[in-house]
Amino acid sequence: MVRSGGRFLPKLGPQRCGPFFFCIRGFTLGAMAPSEPSAEPALAPLIAAAQAARGHAYAPYSTFPVGAALRAASGAIFAGANVENAAFPLGQCAEASAIGQMISAGERRIAALVVIGGDQPCPPCGACRQRLVEFAGPELPIHLCASDGRELARVTLGELLPLAFTAALLTPGKATPGA
Ligand code: ZN
C-alpha cells in the first residue's frame, strides 16, 4: 500500500516504464486517485516546470514523454525530460536530465521532486532511485502528478528505495552523499 494525500492506494502489478519502452517498472503505485489539487501551493512552480519539460521530451520510440522537476536546497528549480535514442539503452530518464541540470548549476542537494509521466503515477525507475539517493536523503518528498498537474500520489525516496547503497557505505562514518 502507498500513501497518497493521506490515503492509501492498493498496489497493482508491473507497469511499463516511461523513459524506455522496453523496461519494466518495479511496481505500480495503484489505481489513479480521484482528482485532487496538490495540498502544497509551493509545488505549483515545480509542477509547471515538470509539465514544461515533459512538453519537450524526446520520446519517439516509447511515445511516453516524462517530465521531472526538482527543487534544490537553494530553492532553485531544475527540470528535465526523457531523451530517447535509436540505440535504446542510451535513453535517459527525465529525473537524470533534471539532476544533470542541477549539478551543472553547482547544486548538490535535492529538496523535493515532481515527476509527470501521464495520467497515472509515474514513479522513478530503479536506476533513478539510486541517482536520487546520491543527492537526497530518505525523507525526500516525491510527488507523482498527472499531465494536468493533479497530484496523484506522494511518496518518499526512503519508501521507494529502502536500504539504499550510498557513499556512506564506502567510507563508514565519514561520507555524506551529495556533499
Ligand atoms: Zn529512470
In CATH terms, the superfamily is Cytidine Deaminase, domain 2
- What small molecules are bound in this structure? zinc ion
* Helix and strand composition category: alpha+beta
Could you name the ranges where pLDDT drops below 50 across 5 or more consecutive residues? Answer: 1-38
Record the strand order, biggest sheet. 6-5-7-8-9
The major beta sheet can be summarized as:
5 strands, mixed
Helix content: 10-25%
Q: How much of the sequence is in beta strands?
A: 15-25%
Number of strands: 9
- Principal-axes geometry comes out as globular
* Named CATH architecture: 3-Layer(aba) Sandwich
- For the residues shown, what is the average pLDDT? 82
CATH class: Alpha Beta
Please explain how this structure is put together.
- The chain starts with a strand and ends in a 19-residue tail after the last helix.
- By secondary structure, it is of the alpha+beta class.
- The N terminus is likely disordered.
- It has a five-stranded mixed β-sheet with strand order 6-5-7-8-9. Strands 1-2 form a two-stranded antiparallel ribbon. Strands 3-4 form a two-stranded antiparallel sheet.
- It is built from four helices and nine strands, in the order ββββαββαβαββα.
- The radius of gyration is 15 Å and the shape is globular.
- The chain has one domain: 3-Layer(aba) Sandwich (Cytidine Deaminase, domain 2), CATH 3.40.140.10.
- 20% of the residues lie in helices and 23% in strands.
- Bound molecules: zinc ion.
- Zinc ion binds next to helix 3.
